[in-house]
Write a structure and sequence with these properties.
There is one protein chain. By secondary structure, the protein is α/β, with parallel strands linked by helices. The protein folds into four domains: 230 residues, Ribosomal Protein S5, domain 2 (2-Layer Sandwich); 105 residues, Helicase, Ruva Protein, domain 3, CATH 1.10.8; 186 residues, 3-Layer(aba) Sandwich (Rossmann fold), CATH 3.40.50.300; 155 residues, Up-down Bundle (Four Helix Bundle (Hemerythrin (Met), subunit A)), CATH 1.20.120. Helices cover 45% and strands 16% of the residues. It is built from 30 helices and 34 strands. Strand 1 and strand 2 form a beta hairpin. It is elongated and about 165 Å long. The two termini are 31 Å apart.
Length: 854
């Protein structure tokens, strides 16, 4: 008869049919125990987690642990570590734990300071000091320089200095006066008078002891005037010689005064730095710096006597140094890195590795008159310098966002030094004038944390990365479900209780968490290594326990935490379920139909995955071997789904021969599925629909199917088995259980079933069923109640009345009635036209629905 769906549209024929053989169904049926992962309570020898120790060891990650130990112990260059694995699996926690333990036993790292370079002020000098000595050295220098400034001022203000300086001045004046008086007498002897003025020395001839007048000079004869000129020229030579002698006396006086000032400054300064010199006598760099400071203080003594006489400075430094009232800024010690001598090597976790945060930076200060200025005190260390001598932990994704930082990291590790540079100068953005601090030698281990595929890409395409990060610690996504690992998870819960102040968990609550851990990886035999997700449920269970005023967290609280987590994210799932229940999405869960079957798919929304049934329908007719998949022709199917579909042609040829398969035209589609689909788990479902349509054998709609198939008819495992079973159970529960509904899954997927408690309860009560199949023959008999007839008889044909015989007979009728095939045109499966290539730079339009895995 002809059937119509709930909207009155025509649909596949619905017929009555006999039930499948009881022996087959019983043989394939699974029990609730086989579909669950109950935790053995004997594994948990405690009543509450208060009786457990906190977890100090790492469990379940032996491969990663060995790699970490090797990388940290390997001292050769290039053996930095990459910790690989998805987020939330404890990579950073495990690595940090190893680093801190190893750092405590390691030698403490050196302190680093930057000081003014008195030879080249734009190249600040880097000096290493013993751990913890950097701040002490800076304070000692500050105290010594301040004392020196006071001592210099006091020394030059002292009465003794004033008397000695005055004595020198008087001696110079005496010698100068004697020379000038001698010059005056010599001029008198030569008949001239000298007049000393601001413009110099003027001479005038004498007559009768008095300078001659102009009239007297004009009345002289030419011979007399000529004689006066010759005498004046001789006097000029005497004057010049005397002036040279005067300048020599003044120069010697100045030298004596400078020597006095130098001695006074040295006497005021040198003794203040002797304790520092004795303390750091073993450090050549410190000794050279202290001597440079003493020499500069002596040389710049006038800086502390008055504001005059300041030395010439580079333009970039002058405003800042002149702004310092005390004039001692150039002697300040900038401690950029300091370490605790009692706490071992440093462990630095840089969460924002920009270029400046990683390499370091030079800061600038705006000036009142405009412009920027800087000096050695404004050099700031980056994470590389802070971790020098220890360990630096970074996330690869953060570095990839800051590509300049990644380049800087590779350059520093390759060269073995970290050089703090202006980014504009380094990358040619703008020529600038500024500081270029002295590079610091590097000796550290860098640990990158990231996903495995990022490591593979960089290892393949970045030679520098390949040479620097030679060790990969690959973290497992799951680990065996053993007694030891179960106790490990219980200790993880205990540690979180101590760290986060959670209520104690009962044995049953921990057992339920362990069961949930197996569900997280969809495997009864394993536990999830996603400790972050595991502890998230534990914290939520603590919340519900506190809300109810319970003294401890019980099984019910964990169960509610799981349910509430799903409920908060299940809006789309519930709307899809409502649409199926009210007929908007047409899915049959009772009756039988020819060429129609319930396939199971999985929606992945990121925070939740859920299964939903979808109708797969098939229509057959005589043709030329074309099998059309509507989703493929409409570019809604992924590559894996297309591969699974193409296998059907080979399976048809294997069962019925190439000639018969070539007489078929078939059209299959996922009804009312409008988003993109991928995966091969519907290939067996499509084969069942095709066999049903060929044999005109109705399929029970109360049974849903999942599983991929190979060309020989073997049913292969698929993903998302738990979600698919629960998705079909939900629609059956909403519509009302009939007692015959269930799901057929590949037998290989039995260990991957970790079903909800309500589904297990329905299975135990016989209201819902699971069947595990190995072959396509088992599946078609389960669905139709008719034997498949998998073995041909002596006549070369399948047994009469079997699915394969009826399908073969139908194909033969197609072959007899089809039109002759044009010469040279082979039988084929219709392939869709290739999709147009996307325009570069323009992303393709998103699908109308979330990606669906079938």
């Amino acid at each position: 008869m002809e059937a119509r769906d709930r909207d009155g549209r025509k649909g596949p024929r619905m017929t009555s049919m006999p039930a499948a053989g009881g022996n087959l169904r019983e043989r394939l049926r699974l029990s609730a125990t086989q579909a669950s992962a109950p935790c053995d309570l004997s594994w948990l020898p405690f009543e509450t987690t208060d009786a457990l120790p906190t977890l100090d060891a790492v469990f379940g990650q032996e491969r990663a642990v060995r790699a970490i130990e090797f990388a940290l112990g390997m001292e050769a260059p290039g053996y930095h570590l990459f910790a690989s694995g998805p987020d939330g699996f404890g990579k950073q926690t495990v690595v940090t734990s190893f680093l801190r333990r190893r750092a405590q036993a390691a030698q403490p790292a050196l302190d680093w300071v930057y000081v003014h370079n008195f030879t080249r002020p734009d190249y600040p000098q880097a000096i290493s000091l013993p751990p913890g000595e950097g701040p002490r050295f800076a304070r000692a220098m500050e105290s010594a320089v301040a004392a020196a400034a006071r001592e210099i001022k006091a020394a030059f203000d002292s009465d003794d200095y004033v008397r000695r300086r005055q004595a020198l001045a008087e001696a110079v004046d005496h010698e100068r006066t004697a020379l000038l008086e001698g010059l005056q007498n010599r001029a008198m002897e030569m008949g001239f008078a000298l007049q000393f003025g601001p413009a110099g020395i003027a001479s005038a001839p004498l007559k009768d002891g008095k300078p001659i007048t102009e009239e007297q000079f004009a009345a002289l004869t030419d011979a007399a005037r000529q004689k006066l000129q010759e005498q004046r020229a001789a006097l000029e030579d005497v004057v010049q010689e005397t002036l040279l002698q005067v300048r020599g006396v003044e120069r010697i006086g100045n030298e004596r005064a400078n020597a006095l000032d130098e001695d006074v400054a040295a006497f005021a300064v040198d003794h203040l730095f002797q304790p520092l010199g004795a303390q750091y006598g073993h450090d050549v760099e410190v000794q050279e710096y202290l001597e440079a400071v003493r020499a500069d203080l002596r040389h710049e003594r006038d800086r502390f006597r008055s504001s005059e006489g300041a030395p010439a400075l580079p333009p970039s430094l002058a405003p800042l140094l002149q702004a310092s009232a005390s004039g001692t800024r150039r002697y300040e010690v900038n401690t950029v890195v300091t370490n605790d001598a009692q706490r071992g090597a440093p462990v630095v976790v840089e969460t924002h590795p920009t270029y400046q945060n990683l390499i370091g930076r030079v800061e600038y200060q705006s000036q009142p008159g405009g412009g920027l200025a800087t000096d050695h005190t404004m050099v700031r260390a980056g994470a590389l310098m802070k971790a020098n001598g220890g360990y630096l932990l970074l996330r690869l994704r953060d570095l990839l966002v800051n590509t300049l930082a990644l380049d800087g990291l590779k350059r520093a590790l390759t060269s073995g030094v970290v050089a703090i540079e202006n980014m504009a100068e380094t990358y040619g953005l703008m020529p600038t004038v500024g500081l270029r601090p002295e590079p610091v030698p590097l000796n550290l281990k860098v640990i990158l944390i990231g996903e495995a595929y990022l490591y593979s890409l960089l290892y393949r395409y970045d030679p520098d990365f390949r040479q620097l990060f030679r060790v990969k610690a690959e973290f497992e996504e799951d680990f065996p479900r053993t007694r030891e690992n179960a106790l490990g998870l219980a200790s993880v819960v205990r540690s979180e209780c101590v760290r986060g102040g959670l209520l104690p968990f009962t044995k049953g609550a921990v057992a339920r968490l362990i069961e949930h851990s197996s569900r997280m990886v969809a495997d009864q035999r394993r536990l999830s290594a996603n400790i972050a997700g595991f502890l998230d449920i534990a914290r939520q269970a603590d919340y519900w326990a506190r809300t109810g005023g319970a003294p401890s967290v019980t099984t019910g609280h964990v169960e509610r935490a799981v349910e509430e987590t799903v409920y908060r994210s299940a809006l789309v799932r519930d709307r899809v379920l409502e649409a199926m229940n009210d007929g908007t999405i047409h899915v049959d869960t009772t009756g039988s139909r020819i060429g129609q079957i319930n396939a199971l798919s999985v929606y992945d929304l990121g925070d939740i995955e859920f299964g939903r049934p979808s109708r797969v329908t098939c229509v057959v007719s005589p043709g030329n071997g074309a099998i059309v998949m509507v989703e493929r022709d409409s570019d809604l199917a992924g590559k894996i789904h297309n591969k699974g579909f193409l296998i059907l042609r080979g399976l048809l040829a294997d069962r019925f021969g190439q000639d018969r398969a070539s007489a078929l035209h078939a059209s299959l589609t996922f009804e009312q599925l409008y988003g993109e689909i991928d995966g091969d788990s519907a290939s067996s479902t499509e084969m069942y629909a095709l066999l049903s349509a060929l044999a005109e054998a109705p399929i029970e709609q109360q049974i849903a199917v999942t599983g991929s198939v190979d060309q020989l008819g073997n049913i292969q495992p698929i993903g998302g088995a738990t979600e698919k079973v629960e998705g079909f159970f939900d629609i059956c529960r909403v519509r009302g259980m009939t007692g015959g509904q269930g799901v057929a899954i590949p037998r290989a997927n039995i260990p991957h079933l970790v079903l909800r408690a309500d589904v297990l309860k329905a299975i135990e009560a016989g209201q819902f069923h699971l069947w595990a199949i190995d072959r396509i023959e088992e599946g078609i008999e389960l669905l139709t109640g008719i034997p498949a007839g998998g073995t041909r008889g002596t006549d070369g044909k399948y047994p009469e009345g079997t699915i394969f015989r009826r399908a073969e007979d139908r194909l033969e009728s197609f072959a007899k009635g089809r039109a002759p095939q044009p010469s040279g045109e082979p039988s084929r499966i219709v392939m869709p036209s290739p999709a147009p290539r996307p325009t570069p730079g323009i992303p393709p339009a998103p699908p109308p629905e979330p990606p669906v895995s079938v």
